Automatic annotation (TrEMBL):
Species this chain originates from: Heligmosomoides polygyrus (Parasitic roundworm)
Domain of life from the UniProt record: Eukaryota
UniProt domain SCP: residue ranges: 79-188
Protein name: SCP domain-containing protein
Amino acid sequence: MSTVCLWYVYMVPANVGDFLYDLVTHKKQNKISAADTTCNLTITSEANRLNALGSHTVARGLLQSEQIYDNAGDSYETAVNLYDFIYDCEYESIADEFVQGCQQTPPSTPPEGHALNFKGFPYNGGATYNRPSEIAIDEWRDQSTKIKATNMFDEGIRELSNLLLRQMLNWRTLRVGCSVQSCGGGIIASVACVYEKPALSPGDQMYEVGKPCSADEECTAYEPAKCDVDGMLCILDTISSITSSTSTSTTSTTVLNTTLSTSSLATTNANPNTGT
């Protein structure tokens, strides 16, 4: 069983910028609860870890508040039974191998049984990359504007933008771990995030369209759980009922009658947009 850090972000304020700016202090404000962790602090700092977790939560919170837009400016539809992320130290350790030495290219395939998002930040005239995890995850989220809004993985929409966004909004995924490497004082960097579930296959639902939770009893995909009515996301109360494996959650109750894919599609950015 993997080592799982119980880190949840409970609030997704309307002003996302303020939320991210204040993320590193949320722990003191009891908005993030942390269990003992064996996460490797030699690669990813706690600040980068919290930024990575918070930015993923922001993506799901924006979906629930109808603030993720497509290429026509229309909002993506909201989801039922959408959960906040749990940070997983084992997945972070898997991601570590993809950022060693601030490498700039992703692996040709993701780790077996998991989806992977990757971004490299190249040398840019000596400018430093501050909070690279936040920049990378926000960029993955903003891929929504390149495609038509849909809750499905469409075989006809196989471009990278479709894949990057859907790792973050796949309702089956509860756990994520990210590794952030900065080199030369931050003049180059790389970010890799490993997701609990493998990439979606054509025809899979990213999530079930419906009203976000407003009461605990509406959170039925994974139990026991409660509803964060402010963020409109379900929060898993405990991890005791769910085992961490590469592709399945053996004791969870799911609301969609779908067959989960066990294939690992290549979901990394083979030609990462490295902007500043």
